[in-house]
Amino acid sequence: MKKEDLVVYEIYVKSFNDSNDDGIGDLNGIKEKIPYLRKLGINYIWLTPIYQTPNIDNGYDIENYYKINPDYGTMSDFNNLLKEAKKYKINIMLDMVLNHTSTQHHWFKKALKGSKKYQNYYFFEKGKNNKPPTNWTSKFGGSAWEYIKKLDLWYLHLFSKQQADINWENKKLRAEVFKIVNFWLKKGVKGLRFDVINLISKPEKKNWKNDLKYNDGKKFYTDGKNINFYLKELNKKTFSNYENVFTVGELSSTNLKHFANYSNPKNKELDMGFIFYHLKTDYIDNHKWSYAPTKDFKKFKEVIETWQLYQQKHNSWIANFLSNHDQPRHISRFGNDKIYHYQSATCFAVLYIFLRGTPFIYYGEEIGQTNLYNTKIEEFNDIETTNAYKKLRSENKTDDQILKIINQKSRDNGRSPFAWNNKKYYGFSETRPWLKYKNIYNITLENDLKNKNSIFKFYQEILRLRQQNKTFKLGKIKFIETNNDNIFIYERYDDQKNYQIILNLSDKKQNYKIKENIKIIINNHEKLNFNFLNPYQAIIVEC
Ligand code: NOJ
């Protein structure tokens, strides 16, 4: 298998399928659904963290990297899942959270007890005049430093204060990290997704300075000085010693050049990476917790085009996606999940699945699962969202105003239990799921399969097409200029074939002349009109 052959399906483990009816998804639940995933046409499953955790950030706060979260099952359940997946020619990709551990991890606990060895596994620093060592802010709000009175030291946490950043400068720490990764590779795990991996290289201590411009400190630790060295070492000491292992880095706020270095095969770092700029196009003035009244497809297209062309030129590789567990559902975000449910689900699927790179599908998008549309603040669960709520309240926003914002932006939107059928709790569980999901449009797999237009079947069709076609996997990409922001056109081509992907990203008809005598490969509308595109029409033609 080569990286271009992968079609990855991300499972938010807590929300996929609950086999023991405790309201929480689990490994056996996933195992039951392997045949379903095979039918869809994927060949890799990325599992969000499955390790022992106090669950402050739903598993992205790891207490023990060698143990399975008991909510999800046991180590033997995991081994069985690996085996079952293998039978169906599906590989498992695990989420490696190596920028921080939970403060419940035994390293951190020992550090708190005063062990210098373990304090050096983290960043414990003296403050300045009763203030934290720097003015950096945590990505979940507030200072990035927490004070420990009995030590008179502050520790760094770029995320919640229960997620302490670990110190990759320390060789002993790195050796522990490699041991963890190898433990899972030995079991037969064939993929690794590295959480915020480009943040692991912090500056030398003498360079820990206040961020005078943005107050967030990002520029000091994003794509830091030793990042390429650490990744090369990680590659050499772990996954390069195993056959057919693929790696993807979550590359937070990186730039074109750094990204290209991380994923260019000659550098022996990572196979591919995620970027987020195309999704940030609904941040008003770069501010996530703002309400975006309209969609900015001009910017959205520009970002995709710039990144695709640059990475093509530099032989690097993008992991393409529109939804994941940190994002609202893209059908609700960019499409129209009420009036054009089928058309917008399929249009955006075509948009990213045929780009140059590896597609990452997020569970539930194959039936067009939508945002939560909550009516009460208390219905939200996510730590980032609840922190944002407090911050917005302190800025004197009313609950109604805040609800509008978080209904649009909260990560919980993408974490609803999978709606399998029309039973109570949609067949996810027999008991009330951990996260409330009203499913206002009654979207379930059962209903989708009964529809004349099934989104699931459309995904099957386009995945088959991509997988059987060398041009989509390895061909070049180019973008066709239009003077209409709502129309997005790109081509995939090689010596033999040339395909055009033509998309109307809006809910209005758009004038566009399609050449006659072309071969239509995909069309998500019944008809084709040669003079205009229907709302959310997506067509692929062979030129
Ligand atoms: C990125 C993960 O995707 C997100 O869910 C998590 O909260 C942060 N990293 C911290 O691990």
From TrEMBL:
<dbReference type="GO" id="GO:0008788">
    <property type="term" value="F:alpha,alpha-phosphotrehalase activity"/>
</dbReference>
<dbReference type="InterPro" id="IPR045857">
    <property type="entry name" value="O16G_dom_2"/>
</dbReference>
<keyword id="KW-0378">Hydrolase</keyword>
<comment type="similarity">
    <text>Belongs to the glycosyl hydrolase 13 family.</text>
</comment>
<feature type="domain" description="Glycosyl hydrolase family 13 catalytic">
    <location>
        <begin position="10"/>
        <end position="415"/>
    </location>
</feature>
<dbReference type="GO" id="GO:0009313">
    <property type="term" value="P:oligosaccharide catabolic process"/>
</dbReference>
<dbReference type="InterPro" id="IPR006047">
    <property type="entry name" value="GH13_cat_dom"/>
</dbReference>
<dbReference type="GO" id="GO:0004556">
    <property type="term" value="F:alpha-amylase activity"/>
</dbReference>
<dbReference type="InterPro" id="IPR017853">
    <property type="entry name" value="GH"/>
</dbReference>
<protein>
    <submittedName>
        <fullName>Trehalose-6-phosphate hydrolase</fullName>
        <ecNumber>3.2.1.93</ecNumber>
    </submittedName>
</protein>
<keyword id="KW-0326">Glycosidase</keyword>
<dbReference type="InterPro" id="IPR013780">
    <property type="entry name" value="Glyco_hydro_b"/>
</dbReference>
<dbReference type="Pfam" id="PF00128">
    <property type="entry name" value="Alpha-amylase"/>
</dbReference>
